[in-house]
Amino acid sequence: MVMLVPELTFLTGLSSLQKSSQMVKEVMWEMMQSPQQHYTCLSSLLRRIRDTPEASRELERWGLHLDTDIHRTQGHVLPMERISLRHRSFFPDEELSWHKEATKEVPISAMPISSWLLVYPKRLQHLAKDLLAAMKSTCGAMGMQVDQPTMQEVWDDRIESYVRSIRSGLGSQEKVQLLVCITPRNRDDLYGAIKKLCCVQAPVPSQVINAQSLMGHPGKTRSVVQKVLLQINCKLGGQLWGVDIPL
């Protein structure tokens, strides 16, 4: 048992109750600030410290002085890199994102998904069917081939049930190219057990998908499936895009 002094401990991160999609979006919004927004926040903080008598006295006690503006230096803006796919190349937008191009164009090399295992809870079999349908309808534009998987149902959400079902599925086929596993919710213990099995005990590329990410608007599900296919292609040895790096 580790005894912690309450006055010396600070809560970090988000609890499971706080990890809602809206909360995560708000946190990411605060983190993904533009340089101008970041500068504005820092300038505001410096002014607040200067105008707060208690803070000013504390700095004086330590012999510290903060300028009212951040340090300025000469910078250099690098030219935009051209992103190359198999049949075309392009420059990314100002947000440095090229997800749309990557999901509508053929990558440099695409790996076919021919012999794979899909493990899912029995009560979420409708989600497994929707996932498979979305993968087959999306893969063509991305230059990928997705064949029918071996479907393996899990009767409950226990770790032992998942491990037993995955072992059974991997043992029933001569060569499994990929394991895709749907979990009912975001559970670190279950995720860790699946990855340990697939990385150490029975090595096979694996993709774990949280069922909650597949629920909601069809457009959202399609976007999730596109990102999953990009990850799978990389894990199987495919190459999504490249940049020109001359000698």
Mean of residue pLDDT values = 87
The structural domain count equals 2
| SSE-based structural type | alpha/beta
Largest sheet: 4 strands, parallel
What proportion strand? 5-15%
Helix count, DSSP H or I runs of 4 or more residues: 8
CATH superfamily of the largest domain: Response regulator
CATH topology of the largest domain: Rossmann fold
Strand order of the largest sheet: 4-3-5-6
Gross morphology: extended
H and E string? HHHEEHEHEHEHEHE
Radius of gyration: 25 Å
Please give the alpha-carbon distance between the first and last residues: 57 Å
Task: Tell me how many strands there are.
Answer: 7
GO molecular function: nucleic acid binding
InterPro entries: Piwi, RNaseH-like_sf
Domain Piwi: 178-247
Protein name: PIWL2 protein
How would you sum up this structure, described in words?
With 247 residues, the protein is an alpha/beta fold. The protein has two domains: 34-64, no CATH class; 101-243, Response regulator (Rossmann fold, 3-Layer(aba) Sandwich). It has helices at 21-31, 35-51, 53-62, 99-104, 125-139, 159-172, 188-201, 218-235; strands at 83-84, 89-90, 116-121, 150-154, 178-183, 206-210, 242-243. α7 (188-201) links the parallel β5 and β6 (206-210). α5 crosses α8 (218-235) and α6 (159-172) packs parallel to α7. The radius of gyration is 25 Å and the shape is extended. The termini are far apart. The mean pLDDT is 87. InterPro entries: Piwi (IPR003165), RNaseH-like_sf (IPR012337). Residues 178-247 form the Piwi domain. GO terms for molecular function: nucleic acid binding.
